[in-house]
Write a structure and sequence with these properties.
Number of helices: 16
Bound molecules: adenosine-5'-diphosphate-glucose
Protein name: alpha,alpha-trehalose-phosphate synthase (ADP-forming)
CATH class of the largest domain: Alpha Beta
Number of strands: 18
Organism: Corynebacterium camporealensis
Distance between the termini: 39 Å
GO biological process, one term: trehalose biosynthetic process
Strand order of the largest sheet: 5-6-4-1-7-8-9-12-11-10
Mean pLDDT: 92
Enzyme class: transferase
Number of domains: 2
CATH architecture of the largest domain: 3-Layer(aba) Sandwich
InterPro entries: Glyco_trans_20
Radius of gyration: 23 Å
CATH superfamily of the largest domain: Glycogen Phosphorylase B
CATH topology of the largest domain: Rossmann fold
Shape: globular
Length: about 475
C-alpha cells in the first residue's frame, strides 16, 4: 500500500494509533487523535498524506493502513533494544534533560547515541520510500533531529520542515553534548526549522554562528524569518511558531456538560474552591513543588482544608526511567502525607489520579476548577494552560502559570510565578484565590483576554503558518 505517491508526509516518533485489546482477546489498531493529528488532518487528507511513525509497542508493527479519512499510516518497527537505546536512553535520558536546562543530569552514553543514529536512519529511509517526487516532509521533535540531514542526502528533491516541541537550550548547555555537531548537521538538513519561541530560535542561531556557519538576518530573530546558510550553501529558515490547541473543540459546553460538571463538583464534596493540576508525570512539570506549596498554605492556615480541594491528574509517563519512578514516588508520598495531615474521613483534601483521563471528562475538570496550577520548571509550550483557558470563555477561573512555560509569553494575564521558588508559587495561588473573591470583574477581564488569545491563535494557525513558511523556503534565489 505504501507507494511513492504521497505529496505530504509527516514523520513523528509515534503514529497516532494505539493497540487495543478486544473483549475476545484479539487486538486492533485504533486511531488516537491528539492535537497534532487534528491540526494536520486537513492537510493530510487533502494532499494524499502519509504519517510515518512507531506504532507504540516493540517488536511488532502492522502493515501500512489507511484511517477512515484516507490518511496512510506507515509504521516503523522498533525492537526492544531500539526502544531502550533510542527512545528511553538517548531521547529521554540524554536530550530531554539537556534541553530542559539540566533539571536532572543528562547521561551521555555512546551505545544510546548509536541506537539514536540507527533509528533516525531507518525513519529517514521509510520516509524516502513513501514520499512522492518533490514532496513536502514535516519532521517532528527531538527524537528525530538527524532525519532532515539524512533525508537531504538520499532525497534532495524533498522540501523538509522540522519542528521542535520542547525548548532549545542555550549554547552553553547544548555544547555539552558529545554529538552536538551531528545534531546540528541533522537539523540543518531542513529548509525550515521551527521552535515555539523566539528565544529558542535565537539559541539555535547563536550556536549555528559559533559553528562558523554563515548567518544572515542577525541572530536577533525576526519573527518566523531568519536565515542560516549551511555549509552546502542552502538557505535554512529558522522561526518561532508557538503551538496551540483546537480551542473551539475544547471550549464549547452543552447543557449536558454543565450537569456533569455539577455532579463532578458534588463528587469532590462541593468545596468552595477547586484547585487543579493536570500533567504527564514528568519531573519537569513541578508537581511536587506545587503539592509542597499547597501543604505549606494548609499548615500556616492560609488555606482552610474545609474549603479547598486540590485535584491532581497525572498521566503515567516513561515509567521505566529512574528519575520518573523517583518523581512518582515523591509525588505519591506527598499526596499521602498531605491527606494524612489535613483530610477528614471520606473527604480527601488532595484527589490524585495516576491515569489518563478522557478528553471529554478532562474538559469538565478544567471548567469546574477555580484555579489551575501550571508550574513546570521548564516547558516548551504547555498545552494544559491553553486548554484550561479555552474552557473558560465564560470568564470564570484563574491561571497560575510558571514563567518557565513557553505559554507564559502569550498569556501575561495569568498569575505568573517562579516555579523554583515555593514562596512565589504560594503567593501566586493565594493572590489568585483572593482576587476571585475580591475582584471578580478584573478576573473576568484577565480570563477573557487570555481566552481571546487562545481562540484566535489555535493549532490550525500554527500548522498553516509553519507550512506557509515552509512552502516559501528552500529556494535560495527568492531570498
Ligand atoms: P507535554 O510535555 O506532553 O508536551 P503539554 O503541552 O502540557 O505537555 O501536553 C500534555 C497533553 O496531555 C495535554 O493535551 C493534556 O490535556 C494531556 N494530559 C495531561 N495529563 C492528562 C491526563 N491525566 N489525562 C488526560 N490527558 C492528559 C510536549 C512539550 C510541551 C508542548 C507539547 C506540544 O513538552 O511543552 O506544549 O509537546 O508541542
Amino acid at each position: 500500500m505504501s507507494s511513492q505517491d504521497n505529496s505530504f508526509v509527516v514523520v513523528a516518533n509515534r503514529l497516532p494509533v494505539d493497540l487495543h485489546t478486544n473483549p475476545d482477546g484479539s487486538q486492533t489498531w485504533k486511531e488516537s487523535p491528539g492535537g497534532l493529528v487534528t491540526a494536520l488532518s486537513p492537510v493530510l487528507e487533502s494532499q494524499n498524506g502519509c504519517w510515518v511513525g512507531w506504532p507504540g509497542s516493540t517488536d511488532e508493527a502492522p502493515e501500512p493502513f489507511r484511517t477512515d479519512k484516507g490518511v496512510l499510516l506507515h509504521p516503523v518497527k522498533l525492537t526492544e533494544a531500539d526502544f531502550e537505546g533510542f527512545y528511553e536512553g538517548f531521547s529521554n535520558a540524554t536530550l530531554w534533560p539537556l534541553y530542559h536546562d539540566l533539571i536532572v543530569t543528562p547521561e551521555y552514553d555512546r551505545d544510546w547515541w548509536h541506537a539514536y543514529r540507527d533509528v533516525n536512519q531507518r525513519f529517514a529511509e521509510e520516509v524516502a520510500a513513501v514520499a512522492a517526487d518533490g514532496a513536502t516532509v514535516w519532521v517532528q521533535d527531538y527524537q528525530l533531529q538527524l532525519v532532515p540531514g539524512i533525508l537531504r542526502q538520499i532525497r534532495p528533491d524533498l522540501r523538509i520542515g522540522f519542528f521542535l516541541h520542547i525548548p532549545f537550550p542555550s549554547g552553553d548547555l547544548f555544547r555539552q553534548l558529545p554529538w552536538r555537531e551531528e545534531i546540528m548537521r541533522g537539523l540543518l538538513g531542513s529548509d525550515l526549522i521551527g521552535f515555539h519561541l523566539e528565544n529558542n530560535a535565537r539559541n539555535f542561531l547563536e550556536l549555528a554562528e559559533r559553528q562558523e556557519l554563515e548567518v544572515h538576518g542577525e541572530a536577533a530573530v525576526r519573527k518566523a524569518d531568519a536565515y542560516v546558510v549551511s555549509s552546502d550553501d542552502r538557505h535554512v529558515h529558522v522561526g518561532a511558531f508557538p503551538i496551540s490547541i483546537s480551542a473551539d473543540q475544547m471550549g464549547s459546553f452543552e447543557v449536558s456538560d454543565e450537569k456533569a460538571i455539577e455532579e463532578l463538583r458534588a463528587d469532590l464534596g462541593n468545596p468552595k474552591h477547586v484547585i487543579l493540576g493536570v500533567d504527564r508525570l514528568d519531573y519537569t512539570k513541578g508537581i511536587l513543588q506545587r503539592l509542597t506549596a499547597f501543604e505549606e498554605l494548609l499548615e500556616t492556615g492560609a488555606l482552610d482544608p474545609e474549603e479547598v480541594t486540590l485535584v491532581q491528574l497525572a498521566t503515567p509517563s516513561r515509567e521505566r526511567l529512574t528519575h520518573y519512578r523517583k518523581t512518582r514516588s515523591q509525588v505519591e508520598e506527598a499526596v499521602g502525607r498531605i491527606n494524612g495531615r489535613f483530610s477528614e474521613l471520606g473527604r480527601p483534601v488532595v484527589h490524585y489520579q495516576h491515569r489518563s483521563v478522557d478528553k471529554s471528562v478532562l474538559r469538565h475538570y478544567y471548567r469546574l476548577a477555580d484555579v489551575m496550577l501550571v508550574t513546570p520548571f521548564k516547558d516548551g509550550m504547555n498545552l494544559v494552560a491553553k486548554e484550561y483557558v479555552a474552557c473558560h470563555g465564560n470568564g470564570t477561573g484563574a491561571l497560575v502559570l510558571s514563567e518557565f512555560a513557553g505559554a507564559a509569553d502569550e498569556l501575561p494575564e495569568a498569575y505568573l510565578c517562579n516555579a523554583f521558588d515555593i514562596e512565589s508559587v504560594k503567593r501566586a495561588l493565594l493572590t489568585a484565590l483572593k482576587a476571585l473573591e475580591d475582584q471578580p470583574e478584573t478576573m473576568e477581564e484577565r480570563m477573557l483576554a487570555m481566552h481571546e488569545q487562545v481562540r484566535t491563535h489555535d493549532v490550525n494557525l500554527w500548522s498553516e503558518s509553519f507550512l506557509r513558511e515552509l512552502s516559501r523556503s528552500g529556494t535560495p534565489d527568492e531570498d
